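[audit] Reproducing an earlier prediction to check determinism. Same input, same settings, fresh worker. If the tokens differ from the archived copy the diff job will pick it up downstream; this log only records the rerun itself.
[audit] input (108 residues):
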Amino acid sequence: MAQQTLVLPERVRLRLTDVSGRSVALADVLLRIHAFARRKNDFDLQPFPTDSEGVAVISRDQLRAEVSATYDSGLMDYCGIEECYPAVEISVLTVDEIQRAIHARTTV
């Protein structure tokens, strides 16, 4: 039976690759994990930087800390993270998204 809800893993290891699948050693690329909620708002957990090898290692504790920060920004707007769909989307933050995140975290 397929997994029905999101389970936060103990550790996630993400590696940057080019279109042919070869590793790209690029530090400080900021990644986002988007979790899709079944109700209320989706979660955008970020930023997770890559190291000099182009790898980001993210622990369950880091994911939970981002979830907690999301709840702090509007608890009534979010369901429990475990209620999200089991599939997530991982993307690179754009320059505009980084600037908005800096503004939100420093002025809000």
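[audit] rerun output stored. Observation attached for the diff report: Strands lie at 11-15, 30-35, 43-49, 55-59, 88-92.
[audit] end
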